[in-house]
Write a structure and sequence with these properties.
Elements: E1 7-10, H1 12-20, H2 24-28, E2 33-37, H3 38-43, H4 49-55, E3 58-60, H5 64-76, H6 82-94, E4 97-99, H7 103-111, E5 116-117, H8 119-129, H9 134-146, H10 153-169
Parallel strand pairs: 1-2, 1-4, 2-3, 4-5
Helix pairs in contact: 5-6, 9-10
């Protein structure tokens, strides 16, 4: 069952990054639907998974064949976690875009022809949708970097400069 491109499967690290950047509210105010496998929602503590569901994150379970697909993914790459495998299996089985910053998961998704994006792309989409200003996105990204979020630093710093320059030029 293919779904609309406005539905995204979020891995824990993207949600954690956006939490540290204090922009989860803006994420859930977008017209898109953000979904996480129940195993990710259950593991999240900061931010709390149940709080994210109340804020707008949709939680889904994998049916038996989806669990089997996740197990096969872990066999294909033994370095990905159970949660990562569930996120990729859910995205792959439903035709949704996967949101993750985990390098190995991104590579595995790409090998399996699953569209995948990370936190920086999500921030860009938030700007494009009008739920976040460039200045607020730059502040959020800087906060994420200062909080120790594992983002591509050179690319992130370049975006911060561009977003601040665009804000000043507006």
């Amino acid at each position: 069952m293919a779904s609309s491109r406005s539905e995204y499967v979020a891995d824990a690290n993207v949600l954690i990054d956006l939490h540290f950047g204090r922009v989860l509210e803006a994420l859930f105010s977008m017209s898109a639907v953000f979904i996480a496998p129940d195993v990710i929602v259950a593991e999240l503590e900061n931010p709390n998974g149940r709080s994210l569901v109340r804020a707008g994150l949709r939680q889904e379970s994998l049916p038996g064949e989806g669990v089997s697909a996740a197990v096969e993914l872990m066999a294909e790459d033994s370095h990905i976690s159970v949660q990562d495998a569930f996120a990729l299996a859910l995205a792959e089985r439903t035709g949704r875009v996967l949101l993750t910053g985990e390098k190995r998961l991104r590579e595995l998704a790409q090998r399996r022809s699953v569209e995948v994006h990370g936190t920086l792309w999500v921030l860009g989409q938030m700007i494009a949708s009008g739920t976040l200003t460039r200045g607020r996105a730059a502040d959020a990204l800087e906060t994420m970097l200062e909080s120790g979020c594992r983002l591509p630093e050179a690319e992130a710093r370049n975006l911060i400069r561009r977003w601040r320059a665009a804000k000043e030029g507006a």
